[in-house]
Amino acid sequence: VCEKPFVRNNVEFCVMKIYGQSFMLHQIRKMIGIILAVIRGMATEEVIYKALTNEKVNIPRAPGNFNITII
Question: Can you spell out the DSSP letters for 2-70?
Fold first, then answer.
């Protein structure tokens, strides 16, 4: 569930709530983790395309039950 975005102190936030079993939760955390890594400049967009191939890519997981702030 993605709640409606809101602005606090001139920063836009979005709350995402994910429910599911272990494999799905880890998969979603990896998808969010790689997007956060690209946004924060810790990875390039190329790694997203590489992750969609058969090549093994080490993808960080977004923290579970944790507030993530992107600035």
Answer: BPPPEEETTEEE--B-----HHHHHHHHHHHHHHHHHHTTSS-THHHHHHTSSS----PPPPTT-----
- State how far the Cα of 26 lies from the Cα of 33, in Å rounded to an integer: 10
Is 58 in contact with 19 (CB distance < 8 Å)?
A: no
In the predicted model, is pLDDT for residue 70 greater than 80? no
pTM passes above 0.70: no
Residue with tokens 């590489």: 50
What's the CA gap between 19 and 1, in Å, rounded? 8
